[in-house]
Design a protein that fits this description.
Blueprint (H helix, E strand, L loop, with lengths): L12 E4 L2 E6 L4 E4 L2 H15 L8 E9 L2 E10 L5 E7 L8 H14 L3 E5 L4 E7 L4 E5 L9
Parallel strand pairs: 6-7
Antiparallel strand pairs: 1-2, 2-3, 4-5, 5-6, 7-8, 8-9
Length: about 150
């Protein structure tokens, strides 16, 4: 798999008749190893190991209903009251992050009302904080640690 702009880690890969699978520590099972999944597993490991996000407050593949349609958020990070704090959207490394990517995560946030949005293709990472009171947002220079959220 492609080298990412994220720290490497000791991942577990299985080869099955359906192809390669990677272990998802949050879902506690092996999942299909797609380019997007490669990014997700590296990013989740990064925020847990390097940004001190509590593993117990992170969930992958969270279903939401938006305009009577079921959607899924790639990763949601919660605060201690189980309120969504961060939504993370992943793309494969070959996928350019465009305005459409930001539009997608903003639509998800219409439902969840998280304070932070992160988009990553494993090579480029963008994080913005949402100020609901002033109806504005600000891009941050780096991904904050959990204690800074």
């Amino acid at each position: 798999m492609l080298k990412l702009n994220l720290p490497t880690f000791d991942y577990k890969i299985n080869r099955t008749s359906d192809g390669l699978q990677i272990y998802d520590r949050l879902r506690r099972k092996f999942v299909a190893l797609t380019p997007e999944e490669w990014v997700r597993q590296h990013f989740v490991e990064f925020i847990i190991t390097h940004k001190c996000f509590p593993q117990s407050l992170i969930a992958n593949e969270i279903g939401i209903t938006l305009n009577n349609t079921r959607r899924r958020c790639d990763t949601v990070v919660y605060d201690n009251t189980a309120t969504p704090l961060v939504i993370i959207e992943y793309k494969a490394p070959s996928v350019e992050i465009t305005q459409a990517t930001f539009d997608q995560i903003v639509r998800y946030n219409m439902v969840l009302q998280a304070k932070y949005l992160i988009v990553s293709n494993g090579l480029n990472h963008y994080c913005c904080s949402i100020d609901y009171h002033n109806q504005s947002y600000q891009f941050l220079k780096e991904i904050p640690s959990y204690s800074e959220l």
